[in-house]
Design a protein that fits this description.
The structure is a single chain. Helix content is about 60%, strand content about 10%. The strands form two sheets. A two-stranded antiparallel sheet has the order 1-2. Strands 3-4 form a two-stranded antiparallel sheet. Helix 1 runs parallel beside helix 6.
């Protein structure tokens, strides 16, 4: 994938904002019990799904902040995805028709507890994702190709900054679909 860097930034911010609006609409009016009701035995509740996204994104938010401190402000004219970014994004993102192709086992460190405090979990989700949107905006001053961001797999596996956004937003889209499925099952 190759496109103008500013276009990638704008598209990423828009994709994040659309997902946050969808989540707001999905959880609006749901009571605490419904938010904490698991879709089925061994499956997540709406709050567990939101908590998982917060846990995962906090890692990337911190890693992006560190990358911003480490690398000079030298924006690129064009963003070109790397094969590793394409692979990770394709692996995590739903298909264009909204189907999630491959189930993935969540890393133990990113598994949420079963019963969660409602408002704290919701506030944390929106706060973390708004911070991500702000970092995406600030990234217009950095190279989306040269700045490398460690993944949740550790410091040895890194993605280009522009690919990290694609991966994170694919992950968010994947779980928005999961939230819709959970709501349908429990509400």
């Amino acid at each position: 994938m190759k496109l103008k860097a500013t276009t990638h930034i704008q598209n990423s911010i828009k994709q994040c904002e659309i997902a946050l609006t969808e989540v707001e609409q999905l959880i609006a009016g749901l009571d605490n019990d419904t938010l904490n009701t698991q879709e089925a035995a061994g499956k997540w509740s709406i709050l567990q799904c939101l908590k998982h996204l917060s846990i995962a994104n906090k890692i990337y938010v911190e890693n992006i902040k560190k990358a911003h401190q480490k690398y000079p402000q030298q924006p690129d004219e064009t963003f070109s995805s790397h094969w590793k970014g394409d692979y990770f994004t394709k692996m995590i993102s739903p298909k264009e028709n909204g189907v999630v192709k491959n189930n993935m086992k969540t890393m133990k460190s990113m598994n949420p507890k079963e019963a969660l405090p409602v408002q704290e979990t919701i506030d944390e989700f929106f706060s973390t994702h708004r911070e991500l949107a702000d970092l995406i905006k600030k990234s217009e001053n950095y190279s989306l190709n040269k700045v490398k961001v460690p993944t949740a797999l550790g410091p040895l596996v890194k993605l280009r900054l522009g690919d990290a956004f694609r991966f994170l937003l694919g992950h968010l889209d994947r779980h928005v679909l999961q939230l819709k499925r959970i709501k349908k099952a429990v509400a």
